Amino acid sequence: MEFGMIFAMGMFALSMSISPGPVNMVIIASGANHGFWQTLPFVSGATIGFTLLLVFVGFWFIGMIENYQVFFQYLTMAGSAFIIYVGYKIASSHPELIVEKGDVPNFIQGFLLQWLNAKAWIACASGAVLFSTPQTHTTLFTFIVIYFVICYLSLAAWAVLGDRVSIILNSVLRIRIFNLVMGGMLILTALYMLYLQFYTAH
């Protein structure tokens, strides 16, 4: 597997995992109110829950389209277009962060929240479209492993940020730069995958 593909997988996983969403907001709120270590069980549950969701969606998806390679190519382009849209929404989002108080979230809550989280389903479906092939499961396995590691580190980073939220994320400019970087990474990843799709097709 070429380095460009692995790098694109990493950038996709990082952008989708670390960009603001329902799970991330729960983590940063818990980190701000209860500290890193008490938030870690929720982080673990969310990571494992997402990984199993990715396995479910990825292999179900592959099973549905393995005999329709042309359809797979169209879905790759559609998935890339959607990721570009998500990247734009993140990059142009309003730079504010609201932390709400609440109880300490646990492992089960983190696990279940991913399966009820629209962002998680979108990330799984888009990732399965972009980073799998009908001929082999190796690409998807690689993507799942990379996503697991990056997802865990990214969610843990949000817990650390929650611990330091008043220092690190109290600047509108910093949040704005963060959103631009994350959105830009998503857009570049989608463009790269479109390039690979057209390059290998000709």
SSE layout and pairing:
Blueprint lengths: L2 H16 L3 H13 L1 H30 L3 H23 L15 H9 L2 H13 L7 H26 L1 H4 L3 H30 L1
Textual characterization of the structure:
The two termini are 19 Å apart. The chain has one domain (3-93, 103-201). With 202 residues, the protein is an all-alpha fold. It contains 9 helices and no strands. The protein is globular, with a radius of gyration of 17 Å. Helix 1 packs parallel to helix 7 (138-163). It is 81% helix and 0% strand.
Supply the number of helical segments: 9
Strand count, sense and barrel status of the largest sheet are: none
Q: What structural class is derived from the secondary structure elements?
A: mainly alpha
Order of helices and strands: HHHHHHHHH
* Portion in beta strands: under 5%
Distance between the termini: 19 Å
Count of DSSP strands: 0
Oligomer: single chain
Tell me the radius of gyration.
17 Å
| Basic shape | globular
The mean pLDDT is 79
What keywords describe this structure?
single chain; 202 residues; mainly alpha; 9 helices
Summary, kept brief:
The protein has 202 residues and is mainly alpha-helical. Helices cover 81% and strands 0% of the residues.
